[in-house]
Sequence to fold (213 residues):
Amino acid sequence: MRPTIEIRIGDAVLYKDLITDYIFFCLGAFLLNDEKINEKRFKEYLINRLRVAKQGLQAKILWCGKEKGIDEVLMEKFDKIERKLSKRFNYKFKIIPEMTRKRITQADFASEIFKKLGRDILNYMLKIEKAFFENEFREYLKNSKKLESLKPPALEEVIVEFTKKDISMWYPAQLLRLPLEEFERIIKNLERKRKIKIRKDLRYGILISNLSK
Fold:
């Protein structure tokens, strides 16, 4: 009956060293416990998760009130973890520092394969399985150039992108997870700009539609 913490390790890792790096990073970040969590930092987290989900290691995030590249933040964290915990666990990072320096993720690798196969989903799945067993991601990373940092998307842009026709308002609200008052302010602003349309339905409640689609 005590509070617990669950750490979920990614279930689609294409390279074995990335699995062990991922575990060491999660363990190290947990044991370092060097982040102060407050309302402001939590709000930054809510915005950052959207930016990183869309732009990967090319994203710029909010960090203690300032905008920084996610790669810069992560490299500092990797260094702290290695200095304090490598001897204790007899482990050093093998691949994620290189991924971070080049701002390249597995998604970039997977996207490249998908495009080369003419966006054929079946052939793509077969190729990705082959890439996993033959550790092709390491070779891709080695031969790739460093990617550029990207301009972060505005929250309004994210809402509009994920809005189609007559979707329940809870969907983008759940996506952003911002305080309800702030979410409603963004929605009303989008309506004023005629980016979305809001209507009430007796059965489904408040529905919104993207006016550009």
Q: What stands out?
A: The radius of gyration is 20 Å. The first strand starts at residue 60 and ends at 63. The mean pLDDT is 89.
